[in-house]
TrEMBL record, chain A:
Residue spans crossing the bilayer: 15-34, 288-311, 332-362, 382-406
Membrane topology (UniProt): Multi-pass membrane protein
Single GO cellular component term: plasma membrane
Name of this chain's protein: Putative ABC transport system permease protein
Record-linked InterPro entries: ABC-4/HrtB_transporter, ABC3_permease_C, MacB_PCD
Record domain ABC3 transporter permease C-terminal: where: 291-410
Species, as recorded: Alkalimonas amylolytica
Keyword Flavoprotein: no
Keywords linked to the UniProt accession: Cell membrane, Membrane, Transmembrane, Transmembrane helix
Compartment annotation: Cell membrane
Pfam families from the UniProt entry: FtsX (PF02687), MacB_PCD (PF12704)
The keyword Metal-binding is annotated on this UniProt entry: no
UniProt domain MacB-like periplasmic core: residue ranges: 18-206
UniProtKB/TrEMBL annotation, chain B:
Organism: Alkalimonas amylolytica
Record carries keyword Nucleotide-binding: yes
GO cellular component: plasma membrane
InterPro entries documented for this protein: AAA+_ATPase, ABC_transporter-like_ATP-bd, ABC_transporter-like_CS, ABC_transpr_LolD-like, P-loop_NTPase
A Pfam family annotated for this UniProt entry: ABC_tran
Protein name: Putative ABC transport system ATP-binding protein
Gene Ontology MF term list: ATP binding; ATP hydrolysis activity; transmembrane transporter activity
Domain of life of the organism encoding this protein: Bacteria
Length: 418, 237
């Protein structure tokens, strides 16, 4: 009977109740959405690179090296000479290496100079290998393989010619117009920065810079694309390289040997450790976001409490009637708490529905725009805990109007102060 | 003062019996209410006349077991209300006492019938079994079937007050307490209301305590008690 009373009482005040539910739905779906996204983002983030034992670059901090080699963010401070790369590559413990040469771009997307090993050994999200959606891996000097986002966003097709720009700005004034590249392959989406990369061979990088010096074309000297092919295109330097070892047990040994390499100052990092450190930095932001959503939720719950408190005035009569027919003051406490429970449960269910629909619609957008691949199912341990927390907080705050109802029932008795 | 004293000397089982009742609000000086003796038998109808502020509400709260006296005792059908816990008094009120207020007796979002049956749950009785009696009471009080499922607020004030009587008498309580239930009615409605209420109370074998400042209603009752005789602080303790 109490449930019927609570239900009908809420229905009677459906205007304000609806607004309360609406504000709760917004704040709860925000909270659950942020929680879902941060889990998915963490998964997606930490699976950016896997299977790589070491990342090697010129001497720098490990975050800087990780950012420019894997996430294509920032710049290398120095390069690694080709000779050094060749020497380290011959280390008996090293199974494979992927050279990476950065510094050019195409319409804001980074150009990655590498070789066929990139497509063979690069792994992400566990053991996933890069897959071609169309075409083939580059073979010729002026071939390029595009990440999926580059191709879809710029609308590139196989066979199309593109011009690389010097430097990494969105708009570049010095382009390698004389040596256009042909799209021969487009990769399948990975949800990693690979999607935003333009891949060319190391020889291609060398060829477009053959008549350049100090970051500018050499005056008075022009080498055509065809002429360049005749010349020695062995790279002089690369930016970084990824290393796979024969045995993981050797990781620290090889890392130390590279760090102590006498030829030039190098840094070797463990990608897992660096990713964890980077995520820790990012998780500050993510935690801040979560705190904000919790505050939004609190505002919603306080709003509900306010609405219920405001309704207590018009409900004095109701309290007196219920007391007259034999309701205990405690019954009135639970009646108001039951209303809190109904409002909160309705909001939780609606918020979950809103979130699922939102994810269903937002999934494609997030994947295509931000390369963020998110699962559709937001229900997990942490979201259930959060829902429990919401319910607990609601009932805790609900104690305020409930206690007021209790007090009124106890002191006012059958009289009504209007 | 002896009010509602039995006519014979034989020991009677009173429906309600008050002895040396004293009440004061916490922190106030002097008695808010002092009543030495009041006894009512089954089926007796008592009129208590008093203006507002004369301790009327306090008396109603005491009679219905919302509050307990500071001194003295109050028995409802030999049950000492002043010794019961608050929860037991609440249940006793649900089962044995019907209350009708001045106005706005009904919960606005419940139907007429649900308002009448509201009391059942608090008295631990099944609403289903009482529906028949509820409908009968409503019909006796001149409320047709088509009104039963309307919302309480869609009825006129006079109709609402009659629904309140139906609820108060649903469980055939020992005592009906009415607090100026006619104050919002015009003279014609008022007299009709009084007759209906007292007839139904008699039918249910319910004792009535009726509180009003309106002397004109006194003629409906055999037993009278002027409130000013038991006003605050008049009687020394």
């Amino acid at each position: 009977m109490l449930i019927k009373l609570a239900r009908l009482s809420l229905w009677n005040r459906r205007g304000t109740v609806l607004m309360t539910v609406l504000s709760l739905v917004i704040s709860i779906s925000l909270l659950l959405g942020i929680d879902h996204l941060r889990h998915e983002a963490k998964n997606s983030f930490t699976s950016t690179v896997s299977g790589t034992d070491l990342i090697v670059g010129a001497r720098s901090g490990q975050l800087n090296l990780l950012l420019y080699s894997i996430f294509r963010i920032g710049n290398a401070t120095a390069n690694i000479s080709w000779e050094t790369y060749q020497r380290i590559q011959r280390h008996p413990q090293i199974a494979w290496t992927i050279p990476i040469s950065l510094g050019d771009s195409h319409r804001g997307y980074r150009v990655v100079g590498t070789n066929q090993d990139y497509f063979e050994f690069y792994r992400y999200a566990g053991q996933q290998q890069l897959q071609l959606a169309q075409g083939v891996i580059f073979d010729d000097v002026y071939d390029t393989v595009l990440g999926s986002e580059v191709a879809t966003r710029l609308g590139y097709q196989l066979g199309q010619e593109i011009v690389l720009a010097h430097g990494i700005g969105q708009v570049s004034f010095s382009e390698h117009k004389d040596k256009p590249f042909t799209v021969v392959g487009i990769l399948a989406p990975t949800g990693t920065p690979v999607d935003q990369s333009v891949h060319v061979s190391l020889e291609g990088i060398e060829a477009i810079h053959i008549d350049w010096q100090q970051g500018a074309p050499m005056p008075g000297r022009r080498v055509s694309a065809e002429q360049a092919l005749e010349m020695d295109l062995t790279p002089k330097a690369i930016t970084a390289f990824l290393v796979g070892l024969n045995s993981r047990a050797a990781t620290f040994l090889v890392q130390r040997q590279i760090n102590e390499f006498r030829g030039e100052p190098l840094t070797a990092i463990l990608p897992g450790v660096a990713l964890a450190e980077l995520w820790q930095m990012l998780s500050m932001v993510e935690r801040l976001l979560l705190v904000i959503t919790v505050l939004v939720l609190l505002a919603g719950l306080v709003g509900m409490t306010t609405t219920l408190l405001a309704s207590m005035k018009e409900r004095q009569r109701e309290i007196a009637i219920l007391r007259a027919v034999g309701a205990h003051p405690g019954t009135l406490f639970w009646l108001v708490q039951l209303e809190v429970l109904l409002i909160t449960l309705a909001s939780l269910v609606l918020a979950m529905a809103v979130l699922m629909v939102g994810l269903w619609f937002g999934q494609d957008l997030l994947a295509s725009r931000y390369g963020l691949f998110i699962g559709l199912n937001p229900i997990r341990d942490s979201s259930l805990q959060l829902m429990g927390l919401v319910l607990g907080l609601a009932l805790l705050l609900g104690c305020i109007p409930s206690w007021l109802a209790y007090r009124r029932a106890l002191t006012d008795g059958l009289s009504v102060r209007l | 003062m002896k009010v509602g004293q039995p006519v014979t000397d034989k020991p009677k089982k009173y429906v309600i019996e008050l002895k040396n009742l004293r009440f004061r609000w916490p922190g106030k000086q002097g008695w808010q209410l002092a009543l030495d003796n009041l006894q009512l038998e089954a089926g007796q109808h008592l009129f208590i006349r008093g203006a507002s502020g004369s301790g009327k509400t306090t008396l109603l709260n005491l009679l219905s077991g919302i509050t307990t006296p500071n001194e003295g005792g109050l028995w409802l059908q030999q049950t000492p209300m002043h010794k019961l816990s608050a929860a037991k008094r609440d249940t006793l009120r649900a089962q044995q006492i019907g209350v009708v207020f001045q106005q706005l007796n009904l919960i606005p979002y419940l139907s007429v019938l649900d308002n009448v049956l509201l009391v059942a749950g608090f008295a631990n009785q099944s609403a289903g079994e009482l529906t028949e009696r509820a409908i009968m009471l409503l019909q006796h009080l001149g409320l047709n079937d088509e009104l039963h499922h309307q919302k309480a607020t869609e009825l006129s004030v006079g109709q609402q007050q009659r629904v309140a009587i139906a609820r108060a008498l649903l469980l055939r309580p020992a005592l009906l307490i009415a607090d100026e239930p006619t104050s919002a009615l015009d003279a014609d409605n008022r007299d009709a209301f009084m007759r209906l209420m007292l007839a139904e109370a008699t039918e249910s074998g319910t004792t009535v305590i009726f509180v009003s400042h309106d002397q004109a209603l006194q003629s409906f009752f055999n037993w009278h008690l002027p409130m000013d005789q038991l006003e605050q602080g008049v009687q020394p303790c």
